């Protein structure tokens, strides 16, 4: 025979021998005190009993012990009954009432009080499949995992030994002495105690409830990071944000981008793009376009500052705003360096160069107080302390110089105002009151200019305009024609008209500020969906199921209803865009596609 053909034949023989050996697998090594054969009752089986020692089974790095075993040598298969224990090195120990092991496929199945122990956790279930080739265990009829800090239950569970990772699906519940997690789908890395939450999930404790649709939680250190429709509910406060960080031991939370803090006790909302919440101190710090909104009969008050701080229990809530504070209400707006709002007393203090606008009227002074009725929650009064100055732009230019506007002015030591139906109704300037008033006929013709001094002056406001002025105890004054009223005398010293700064809408609280760019958020990647535990492509008649097995072909089929609902298949990961957190369905109606690692794209808010 030529060498070429002889070598080819030898190669084919070696290949067939190797393939057959790989298919059949190494023979099971089984030892017992008592052995017997009963071909009538147990055809093809060697029955092995425990006497002084349990039956011992060994196969390629796995050891098994049981009270009774049926060894089917021709099929390289064993059935183990009673106090079954299976060890794989020092990585896992499995106990059960019953187990089957196929030496050719290295596939084990256990049922009845199954307990799987790893170096970091313990799993209890009724039925467990264990594929030693894949190094994966799987259950689909409810299981309970216990580690050093938590107990996790779910309907479906899959354990990846090489990653020390559990993937839980359907009715996932994590129970800890301090909180309970409920989730549709959860990946748990037991060595570090880290859980990844997917789908609608809640973390509930006595003090708070966290909700998210994608999140990370460290069960050992009790802190987490949440994205996608995330919020934290406290007793009377709810925090929303594109991303949330939560630390339970310190009762601290922070939020980034599109933040909204709703205070249900005081009917107020705070918005911004970065916030810190200190539950123990009952305080909130918020910055980056921070806005506090107080709801008042469909006419909310908006307060904006570089940073806002809210402190105190609901009954004694304090709001502080710092740097470039702006206030807007439909008929009232203002600015100041800082603001202090006491929701218990209804007092708002505008501090540092305060200014208020009401219609065409402008009020300034050293300090301005606004007071609300704590029962009706409507504005009740205002008080301008020291150097009170009221100015109103005349709507008709002076005919001698159309480039200039005329200003009705009232000044004095203090100014008091009262509100009617939540609108400014009357102003009273007391002590050393002085006024300049451009008197016009009904058709707008200038009749003269009234300049006077008196003990106090009262003004009635209707439709945001001064309609009536009353002087009390006038000590000096006269009415001058415009021609005899010098330009230098037309304005009191200290008049600083700032009408161009007036806020005409709630959007104007940001007027003059640069467009804001949102912080780039590191997203939480969706889980990688591994290939199915069972190979559904194998026909039933090709499945390697020994005749003596209690399993049937249907037991080796993946059920669609048991599949993870969220994730990206490993073989499709590279085709997924990496700049989105949106889940898109793939592979089946239940599975979703998303990037392995995601960054939110930078966004700009006008």
From TrEMBL:
Q: Does the keyword Isomerase apply?
A: no
Organic solvent tolerance-like N-terminal domain location: 52-184
Question: Could you tell me which Pfam families the record lists for this protein?
Answer: OstA_2
- What GO terms fall under cellular component here? cell outer membrane; outer membrane-bounded periplasmic space
A Gene Ontology biological process noted in the UniProt record is: lipopolysaccharide transport
Its recorded name reads OstA-like protein
Q: Does the keyword Signal apply?
A: yes
Query: Which chain positions lie within coiled-coil regions?
Result: none
Basic and acidic residues compositional bias, start-end: 574-595
Keywords associated with the record: Signal
Which residue stretches belong to region Disordered?
535-606
Traced from the root, the source organism's taxonomic lineage reads: Bacteria, Pseudomonadati, Bacteroidota, Flavobacteriia, Flavobacteriales
Report a single Gene Ontology molecular function. Answer: glycolipid transfer activity
Which InterPro entries does the protein's record reference? LPS_export_LptA (IPR052037), OstA-like_N (IPR005653)
């Amino acid at each position: 025979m030529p060498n070429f053909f002889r070598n080819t034949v030898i190669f084919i023989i070696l290949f067939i021998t190797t393939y057959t050996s790989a298919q059949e697998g190494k023979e099971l090594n089984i030892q017992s005190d008592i052995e017997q054969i009963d071909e009538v009752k147990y055809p093809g089986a060697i029955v092995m009993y425990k006497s002084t020692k349990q039956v011992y089974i060994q196969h390629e790095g796995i050891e098994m012990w049981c009270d009774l075993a049926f060894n089917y040598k021709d099929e390289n298969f064993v059935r183990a009954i009673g106090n079954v224990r299976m060890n794989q090195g020092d990585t896992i120990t499995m106990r059960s009432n019953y187990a089957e092991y196929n030496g050719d496929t290295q596939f084990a199945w256990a049922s009845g009080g199954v307990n799987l122990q790893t170096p970091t956790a313990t799993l209890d279930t009724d039925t467990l499949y264990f594929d030693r080739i894949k190094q994966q265990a799987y259950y689909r009829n409810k299981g309970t995992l216990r580690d050093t800090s938590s107990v996790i239950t779910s309907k479906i569970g899959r354990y990846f030994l090489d990653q020390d990772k559990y993937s839980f699906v359907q009715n996932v519940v994590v129970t800890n002495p301090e909180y309970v997690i409920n989730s549709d789908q959860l990946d748990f890395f037991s060595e570090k105690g880290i859980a990844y939450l997917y789908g609608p999930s809640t973390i509930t404790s006595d003090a708070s409830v966290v909700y998210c649709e994608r999140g990370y939680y460290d069960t050992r250190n009790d802190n987490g990071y949440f994205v996608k429709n995330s919020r934290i509910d406290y007793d009377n406060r709810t925090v929303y944000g594109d991303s949330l960080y939560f630390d339970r031991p310190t009762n601290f939370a922070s939020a980034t981008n599109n933040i909204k803090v709703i205070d249900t006790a005081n009917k107020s909302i705070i918005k911004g793009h970065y916030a810190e919440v200190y539950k123990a101190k009952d305080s909130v710090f918020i910055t980056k376009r921070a806005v506090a909104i107080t709801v008042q009969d469909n006419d909310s008050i908006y307060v904006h500052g570089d940073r806002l701080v809210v402190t105190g229990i609901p009954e004694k809530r304090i709001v502080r705003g710092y740097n470039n504070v702006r206030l807007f209400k439909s008929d009232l707006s203002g600015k100041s360096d800082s603001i202090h709002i006491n929701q218990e007393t209804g007092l708002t203090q505008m501090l540092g160069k305060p200014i208020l606008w009401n219609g065409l009227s402008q009020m300034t002074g050293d300090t301005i107080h606004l007071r609300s009725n704590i029962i009706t929650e409507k504005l009740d009064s205002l008080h301008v302390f020291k150097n009170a100055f009221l100015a109103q732009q005349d709507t008709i230019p002076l005919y001698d110089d159309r480039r200039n506007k005329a200003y009705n002015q009232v000044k004095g030591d203090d100014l008091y105002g009262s509100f009617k139906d939540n609108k400014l109704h009357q102003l009273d300037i007391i002590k050393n009151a002085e006024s300049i008033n451009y008197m016009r006929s009904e058709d707008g013709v200038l009749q003269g200019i009234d300049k006077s001094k008196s003990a106090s002056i009262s003004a009635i406001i209707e439709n945001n305009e001064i309609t009536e002025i009353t002087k009390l105890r006038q000590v000096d004054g006269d009415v001058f024609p415009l021609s005899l009223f010098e330009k230098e005398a037309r304005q009191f010293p200290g008049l600083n008209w700032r009408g161009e700064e007036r806020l005409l809408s709630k959007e104007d609280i940001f007027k003059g500020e640069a467009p804001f760019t949102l912080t780039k958020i590191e997203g939480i990647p969706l889980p990688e969906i591994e290939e199915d535990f069972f190979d559904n492509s194998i026909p039933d008649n090709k499945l390697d199921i020994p005749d003596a097995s209690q399993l049937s072909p249907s037991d080796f089929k993946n059920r669609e209803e048991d599949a993870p609902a969220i994730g990206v298949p490993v073989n499709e990961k590279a085709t997924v865009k990496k700049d989105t957190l949106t889940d898109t369905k793939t592979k089946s109606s239940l599975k979703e596609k998303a990037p392995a690692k995601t960054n939110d794209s930078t966004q700009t808010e006008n």
